[in-house]
Design brief:
- The longest helix has 36 residues, at 138-173.
- Helix content is 63%, strand content 0%.
- By secondary structure, it is an all-alpha fold.
- It has helices spanning 17-31, 36-41, 45-60, 66-80, 83-96, 100-103, 117-130, 138-173, 180-183, 195-198.
């Protein structure tokens, strides 16, 4: 994971005002510094607040296991090519108490043997829902519905949809990884394996 500064296509704006002070305090506590990406989004506060609010709501849902949702978001980020979201979610696994060694393998999940059958089904579903056009099949959904239930599958799908919103937006704007994981001494993320390009079955 690169630790070079983001090459955003929109220059960061100064983060000002009372709300800006609160945002900088929160970001500093979480990351140790204020991410440049916040300055980029500061140009449109309603868009920033809406994205943050929905992301916070997603964090409160509990119909689907947190590990599965994190892996799904990372799978989307890896497929789309959003290094910011991939690094951020990997970094957050430590805060959430998740398995860091597994999380770092998400970019090469098809070639890795650390994931359970259910985790592999979730990763495959996340990629299939992200492809253009989507390649989700009935056969892909059936075991997930059986394992997660309707509410769990809907929650997982909503997380994947939100992940597509953030990853594609970041990629379009040139917002790249700011090295959160590397800064706290986490191992580098694994590189995508040979199976990633062909998208073979899990």
């Amino acid at each position: 994971m690169t630790t070079t500064p983001t090459a955003a296509r929109i220059p960061a704006a100064p983060i000002t005002g009372l709300y800006g002070a609160l945002v900088k305090k929160f970001a500093g506590r979480m990351f140790g510094r204020v991410p440049e990406s916040l300055g980029v989004m500061w140009h449109h506060l309603p868009a920033l607040k809406a994205s943050m609010a929905y992301g916070q709501k997603l964090q409160k849902w509990d119909a689907c296991d947190e590990t599965l949702k994190t892996y799904a978001h990372m799978a989307v980020a890896s497929l789309v090519g959003c290094s910011w979201c991939l690094d951020f979610n990997y970094f957050m696994t430590r805060d959430k108490g998740l398995d860091e060694d597994k999380a770092r393998e998400v970019p090469r999940w098809r070639d890795s043997d650390v994931f359970s059958p259910l985790e592999r089904q979730v990763l495959e579903y996340a990629e299939a829902a992200t492809r253009t056009p989507p390649t989700v099949t009935d056969e892909m959904v059936a075991p997930l519905l059986a394992a997660l239930g309707p509410a769990g599958l809907l929650e997982l799908t909503s997380v994947i949809g939100f992940a597509n919103l953030t990853t594609r937006g970041n990629t379009a704007l040139g917002i790249e990884s700011e090295g959160f994981a590397a800064a706290c001494g986490m191992k580098p993320l694994a590189q995508p394996g040979p199976s990633a390009a062909v998208g073979s079955s899990a």
